Amino acid sequence: MKVLVATEKPFSAKAVDGIRSRIEAAGHTFALLEKYTSPEELRAAAADANALIVRSDIVDKALFDAAPELKIVVRAGAGYDNIDLKAATAAGAVVENTPGQNANAVAELVIGMAIMAARNKYSGATGFEISGKRIGLQAFGQVSRHVAALAKGFGMAVSAIDPYCPAQAMADMGVNTAESLEALYAGNDIVSIHIPATSETVGSIGRDLIGRMPKGAILINTARKEVINEAELAEILADRPDLKYFADVKPGNAAELTERFADRVFFTPKKSGAQTAEANLNAGLAAADQIVAFFRDGTDRFRVN
Questions:
Q1: CATH fold for domain 2-101+275-297
Q2: Residue 192: helix, strand or coil by DSSP?
């Protein structure tokens, strides 16, 4: 089987070597496409591939049409909204992700952003310490659990809300369950967003929720930009000069927000949550192992379609 690793934003060299080693040890052919510049280039490379490993690369119907032999696509990371699941299913291809492999890297970025915001982007202006403050986590998956552990190490009070996570699982980590989403935003000095972009969540975080945050609060988004109502975010930042918004997902109105609220907003130039050597390696090797298992005995434990 031919396994193609196609990444516009490449894996580390160590991760590529590890993926190659595991794929070839299992008797498969390894192929690599990095820093490609057009969808056509990706389609051409995938034309005879049986398996595909990607990061944030777009895998759409056009790609499945161009790659009729594709049996499995693995997203090296947790989120998979860059892959058209309906098109994959129609093409008879399995789609998997690698949950948890990037979790610590993203969690450390959350804490780093919290400190950066609390210290006024290191401008020299008087800030505050996150120790003793309250942090609320919107969703309680792998990333949130790592954030909770790190936050507790800083002496923070942690609460979360997640309809799919039992309260006992939160309690076991010393995390309080928020009574409602509104209460989560109203009751925390820092709120960190960890929800996917779905038909229910797109545009769901706007004036009503952000406006409930206490004076001097910080909103951190390392999830998806689509979950924010960006027009209402601009409005509430104008109305509430005490609020800050830091994100690893640059909003569509980033230029406007930066011009109007430069000292209270921050956006990474390119999504950086998983950009560590460790996360790179972990996610890449997990993707390789999942493909090997799939072709060996049909294992599809992390299937998402």
A1: Rossmann fold (3.40.50)
A2: strand
pLDDT at 270 over 90: no
Report d(CA 60, CA 82) in Å as an integer: 8
- In this structure, the number of other CB atoms found within 10 A of the CB of residue 269 comes to 6
Beta strands in 168-271 (DSSP E): 176-177, 190-193, 218-221, 244-247, 265-267
Both structure tokens of 183: 């209460």
The DSSP letter of residue 103 is: H
Burial 176-189 (b: 16+ CB within 10 A, else e): bbbeebeebbbbbb
Chain centroid to CA 237: how far?
A: 24
Encoded tokens for 272: 């950086």
Mean local confidence (pLDDT), 107-128: 97
CB 278 within 8 A of CB 104: yes
How many angstroms separate the CA atoms of 74 and 72, rounded? 7
Q: How far is Cα 227 from Cα 224, in angstroms, rounded to an integer?
A: 6
* Rounded CA separation 75/54 (Å): 5
Flag whether pLDDT at 51 surpasses 90: yes
The residues with which 160 forms a beta bridge, in sequence order, are 137, 177
Token match 């996570």: residue? 165
Kindly report, as residue ranges, where domains of CATH 3.40.50.720 are found in the chain: 2-101+275-297, 103-267
pTM metric for this prediction: 0.86
Q: Which residues contact 81 (CB under 8 A, 6 or more apart)?
A: 196, 197, 224
> Following DSSP, what letter does each residue of 246-296 receive, concatenated?
EESS--TTHHHHHHHHTTTEEE-SS--TT-SHHHHHHHHHHHHHHHHHHHH
What is the fold of 103-267? Answer: Rossmann fold (3.40.50)
* Distance separating alpha carbons of residues 142 and 106, to the nearest angstrom: 10
As a whole number of angstroms, the distance between CA 156 and CA 153 comes to: 7
pLDDT digits (tens, 9 = 90+) for 59-75: 999 999 999 999 999 99
What letter does residue 59 receive in the DSSP assignment? B
